[in-house]
Specification:
45% helix; single chain; four-stranded antiparallel β-sheet; alpha+beta; globular
């Protein structure tokens, strides 16, 4: 029965979860060590131990150039799947969906237009992380950190 087989596979996969999570944390920390002074990035909550999906970077107006450089080196990125949902066709073009915007959605627009994800899966190699840092160094960024949202801070 598929349920029994699926259950057995799931139980076996759960045994691998601690190592998988540790590899993601390790890769996130590697990215962080080479990129933290060059980009704004997400921060973990105090007293948390996240298993990161990816390393989120605010590339400013250079996102397209950074993505191309990384892609040319065989390093995959993903656009943030967040942002201003009111721009999504299912919301923007559907007059049946009623919603109210209480405050400015400026920051969601910034996330949608400037941020990328760098994967931190266990398959990401140290060479990929190094090549990512080298590719980002090829892109000229004001103040050495990229042009980021007005709410971002520089060190």
């Amino acid at each position: 029965f598929p349920v029994t087989i699926d259950s057995a596979l799931g139980i076996n996969q759960l045994k691998k979860l601690p190592d998988f999570n540790e590899a993601r944390r390790l890769n996130w920390n590697k990215y962080h060590s080479v990129l933290k002074d060059k980009f704004n990035y997400q921060h973990k909550q105090r007293d948390s131990e996240p298993s990161w999906f990816g390393y989120a970077l605010d590339c400013g107006r250079h996102r397209r150039e950074i993505v191309k450089l990384l892609s040319d080196k065989g390093i995959q990125t993903r656009m943030m799947f967040a942002g201003n949902i009111t721009h999504q066709p299912c919301i923007a073009n559907d007059i049946k969906i009623k919603y109210e915007v209480k405050e400015s959605l400026t920051n969601t627009d910034i996330i949608a237009s400037q941020y990328i994800w760098l994967g931190v899966a266990p398959s990401v190699s140290q060479d990929q992380i190094r090549e990512t840092a080298e590719a980002e160094a090829e892109v000229e960024k004001p103040n050495g950190r990229g042009e980021t949202s007005k709410n971002s801070t520089s060190s």
